Each structure stands twice: as structure tokens, then as C-alpha cells.
Amino acid sequence: MEKSKMKKMKWFENWFDSKYYQILYKNRNQEEAKLLIDNLINKFKPNKYSCFLDLCCGNGRHATYLNKQGFKVDGVDLSDKSLNIARKNKNQNLNFYCEDMREYVKNNKYDFILNLFTSFGYFETKQDNLRVIKNSCKSLKINGYFIIDFFNSEIIKKNIIEKEIKIINDIIFKINKSYDKEFIYKQIEINDKGSKYTFTEKVRLLNKSSFIDLSKGLNLRLEETFGDYYLNPFNELNSDRLIIVFKKINNYE
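Above: the chain's sequence. Below: its structure in C-alpha cell form.
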């Protein structure tokens, strides 16, 4: 019965709430997170009353750092385990909510919505990705910014490391990466002292044109496209990241 339930879960529902996800990614670069946030603040100059949403906030590293800079921040994520870590830093101006990014809407609440560190493209259908964009647009105030930090699909495909083994806390992680026309896959085989598990990350291969297409008709205007956390211009041939910045120009029905 329990195995049957697990099979019905989407990969991100299962994997992100696994203890092995936290172990594998425990050393994510906090300095890198600070670098991006600092440069975004310097570029877009939010005022002290600006309200932020960290959409798919995970452990809350971006949200917490933003809050320490004096801003009001909400964090939303589907993973209870990640949110339990994030909530250790909760205060009156930093709150976290367990929500599906496809469903979360707070009409005209936010000056900035951030979707960082490749937290987009997890869904099977274009319609689900579109729901995220549409609800984010609804949640933005007029002249608010929706900033998406995604990988550069061309560079990911070009530099893919197909096989890799990591040993963390005596747990063996065998990582196999591949891609097709639509998705990039990361199969993670885990051996924890003889107990074996397999998870697969699956993220849609989106490019700049894909995001522009998703934004059509939603009163979002493409403002900037950056290629790294220093906010250098995006170049499809050599940029590590694709950082898309949309601005909400008016409301829509």
C-alpha cells in the first residue's frame, strides 16, 4: 500500500522530502546565494517597504539573507523537511508556507518574486509551467519584478557529466545524467549501508524563447536577461545561467 502511494507521487514530491536530498545538497554555496541577492538589490534598488516572495525557497537561504538585509519576505515550498529548516529563522518579517507553486496566489502583494537556483520546469506539461507564471503575475504589484534563475540549457547539454560517484557520510551516491529533446534527467542511486534507493530529477529544457512564450498575454514585459550571478549579459553560447527578469506592466483579468 505504501509503495503504491509512493509511485503515484511526482518526483519532486518524493525526492525533496527525502533525507538523502538534504545530505547530497547540504554544501550548497551560501556565498553564491549572497552574491546573487546582493547584486539583484544593487541593480533593482528595492526600498525598505518592498515585499519579496521566494518561490520554491527550499531551506530558505535566499529568503533568510534577504530578510537580514531589512526586507519583508515570504518563502513558499512544497517540502516540509526543507521548510522545517527554513523556519528556524522565522520572524515577524520572514514567514514560510507549505504550498504548491502552481496554486500559490496573493493578489498584488509582492514587489519582487524570486524563483532561484533552477526551481522551475519540474512539471510534465506546459500548462502547469504556465500556471506558475500566471499566478506569479497576479501576485505581483504593478511595476513589480519576477526574476527566474535557471540553467543555460545549451551549456548544460554541452558540459554534461554523464556519470559521477559521491560518498557523503558513508552513503554512496551514483549519479547518472542524460537528456532528450524535452528534459534533462539526473538519476541518483543511493546505497546507505546496504539499503538501496533510486530517485530521478527531471527538469524541462527551457531557453530564453521558452520563457518569453510562457509570458505572452500576461502583461509581463521582459526587462533584462543575465548570464551569471554577477549579472553580466546573457550569451547562449557561454553563459552558465539564464536569469530572466520580467516586469509587471498592468493588471489582467
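The chain has nine helices and eleven strands.
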